[in-house]
């Protein structure tokens, strides 16, 4: 088989009519509240709803085989709670660090457990950090309200847009008292959170909390998994951060902003997390595109987000030696790479 035939076959597997229609439906469904908001001269509120939907939709590749709707509803509650706390939290306050550690702890436990709430807690922690200092014109209460509405809308997009997993997820036993590997991962998560939070307090720009969020995205239970995560994520994250800054620069042109976010999300759904570099690029770009106070030069905003992403990865590298070397159990093939 020639190289051209191999490329064509891979492209055919990647893009099918059914997959294209599903990806387009998910992308359009996610930005639909934003479109409606723009038509009603409420573009910012519409974008908040789309942000909540986006985070929930990005949590899943396949629907859980059992208790599907229950897990989706629990995920929506988790997202809404973390984002609501974030919007009412002041960067650098004692409560900022207290809840950051709590959020990181939920991410840690669900990561070790490897259950269906692993990704919801991980991205809800991201949502907590991304909600801080993002107070829109109508105030924090309406941010919390519209974000929660978006999560509810995201339940239906996810339920009708994704297929169910073909086999049940293998979960692990948690024994923090007697398992030194799990203890070391827990300590690494805590140090990463505190370091990232402290540095974020002294970071300029409109999105300093992206730094601890970026650090927590690459921390895994072992050194090997974390190194692999950094290697596979670094290019997509850095390019995605730059793209996110560029998208923010287009926010004064709402329709172009919405169109490009929809396009990037469509590509994200086509690629899926199996093509982790592309998926990470899209995830980062769209997540950073929802930044309400952001104004200024496109280049400066892109540079700011790239530096914050690089700083987060450097923080992850500082705790690498604390992590254990060998995993005790293999990560289940149905788990998600984020």
From TrEMBL:
Location (main, coarse): membrane
InterPro entries xrefs: Memb_transporter_dom (IPR049453)
Pfam families assigned: FUSC_2
Superkingdom of the organism of origin: Bacteria
Keyword Ribosomal protein appears in the UniProt entry: no
Keywords: Membrane, Transmembrane, Transmembrane helix
Integral membrane bound transporter domain ranges (all copies): 197-319
Membrane-topology annotation of the record: Multi-pass membrane protein
Annotated TM spans: 20-40, 47-64, 76-105, 141-162, 183-205, 238-264, 276-294, 306-323
Compartments (UniProt record): Membrane
Cellular component annotations (GO), alphabetically ordered: membrane
Protein name from the UniProt record: FUSC family protein
Species the sequence originates in: Entomomonas moraniae
